[in-house]
Amino acid sequence: MAIVATLAMALMAQGPVDAVVAPETTYDVGFEQLVAGRDHEAVDAIENCKELAQDDPARLINHGIALARLGRYDEARADFEAAATASNSVELETANGEFRDSRHLARRALAMLDSGDFATYYALSMR
What we know:
Keywords: Signal
Radius of gyration: 12 Å
Organism: Qipengyuania soli
Shape: globular
Number of domains: 1
Protein name: Tetratricopeptide repeat protein
Signal peptide: 1-19
CATH architecture: Alpha Horseshoe
Largest sheet: 3 strands, antiparallel
């Protein structure tokens, strides 16, 4: 299963998040853990992923999601800001077939962080 969580459609609301799919990758970076609400395990999986660069925008967004869900907002903000200002971006396809730029998703994550939405947020996405 291609796996790197990003934000996708549920950034608009506090409900569940649509999956994000980029079929060319096969990296397991915390998706199953995020879906199951095992955020500590998601952080470990993402931090131990050797296949993606540390500055990969999707990796940064996933890591930020897991951290935000754990209440580690300053660290999450650093990840989201790095993804939002990255020199490279990744087009991610949401489960509903829409494509989103990783910078756009990172900016939406920052907005969610600012509004306190991560307190009730459940991530569910893939790259």
